[in-house]
Amino acid sequence: MSDSNQARVFKTRRTSAFSLFFIVLLAALLFCLFLLPGQSQFAFAAELPTEESEAAETQDLVPESEETGPADPADAEETIIEAVEDQDGQAEPVEEPVAEAAEGPEMTPAVEAAEPEVTESPVEQAPEEEAAPTAEEAEEAQADTTPPVVKYAAAAVKLGKVVTPSTFVMHYEDESSVTLRFTEKPDTSTIGEYPVTIVAEDAFGNSTVIETTLYVCDRVIELELENRMYTGLQLREKVGTLHGYHPSIETFKVKKEGASSFELKKGDKVIYVGMQIRDTTRPKAKAVDQVCYLGYPKGPEAFVTDVSDFQDFTIEFLTEPDWDLAGTREVKIAVTDASYNRRIVKAMVDFKKDDIPPELILNISPYHYVGDAVAYMKGVSALDNLDPNCEIAVDKSQVKYRKVGTYPVTYTATDRDGNSASVTVEISFREPSISDEQLDELADSILHDILKDKMSVAQKIKAIYDFCRYKIRYTGDSDKTDWKGEAYRGLTEFKGDCFTYYSAAFLLLNKIDGVEVMSVERIGGRTHHYWCLVNIGSGWYHYDACPNHIYGTCFMRTNKQLHNGEGKVYWKYDMSQFPDVATKSFKMS
What we know:
By secondary structure, the protein is α+β, with helices and mostly antiparallel strands. 23% of the residues lie in helices and 30% in strands.
């Protein structure tokens, strides 16, 4: 075949191939258009972005940042915190602050609202559904209705200085995170005094509104909170070398944290000076080493001494000790003032088991009448180095109260660590030397003579007091085993000692309606002494008719009146065994 014929055949074959290709392509298009109309329309629609898809794409963009805040703490300090509503009522975004490091107690930094940086996302993501809160979270949110507690103070800054809510807020307390925001951005471009409002809101929507003041000045000096008076010239020296400038104030007393301002003038020139007052001084405190017994916690105050600060302060354990673990170890106590300056002191503490037994205190009468019921626990107590509620048991198994004689009674006190102490005493039973009928007849006769019908109860007990005090003669002797016989002796023979005066008054007072009487015996003295506690409805008072030219008269006296000077020894008694004595002076009625 010639070359011309070969070329012609090749051209014809190429044309046929192209024709076949176009036929197949046309068939495929017709198949897509007519046999698969639904799929074709969906694919076509997917290529066209709608307003809804654009909005979703915008919402799906995730803020990207390599750092959570400015690398430089100074930059963080300069960050402006804004939350000002625009004309449409929408809150303008605010820049994210960085928590500033501060010396002192560990504090949760305030979280301030932040504006996310919108960047393009290379991959389109569907928005994630927010997980429903757990029952515990829902209950916590419903239970938290307490707004944050915020400590704040006024601030003074230089002209043009950027301020944040943390410029004013020094500390807050809340169960959740707290967001701080200005209601209106403070203007520091002009010198002056400006009101500032800050809202502190926790994670559950509880908020606290703070009203404070911002001083914008040419210069700012810092003053430490202390009880000190500055002169105007001293304040000028703190500003710097300013010859010829005169302060507008003569004196300034530092009283509390906050800010204030004054002027320095030189002719027509004025320098506005702000004073920033802060407490940056930690409290003073010294540690006290202790011995602690297992199971008996002590307060943190027991481990420190010489604590002082210009402001109020709190004392607490940095970590609560294990009071049930024996051994010697270090205990850390934190002393924190109102500005949250904290000092940590370390005390060495020896924790050990208590091995000291309690001490029994027996203020009981050893003398009783045959057949009388005995109150064995009256006047009995125990004193322990740790346990205020020791168990006290009494063994009276050998007592025969219906028979004359002397019998042993054993008391045992046991503390909660098992340490115990026992004391055995003897009590005696005797036949009465005078019958109750004889006593009643004698008492009724005396009361008939000394009382009048129109007397008040107070006047009646005073008449009994005067009769016993001035009618009975003190001889210094009595039978302290028989109060009934001694009362009869005192009211018939008119002589005896303190037990006689007590017995006679006790008998007569118990015959008056509306009068309660209790017997009291002194403890700790070299000799015995007896008197009464009396209540006529206005409280319990001391009542002692025995003459006493050293300590004074004791008619219806309070503890304070009774225990003045040496009287606290003469009338010392176990207060735990008696009702509280009245604190107001007794008034006759």
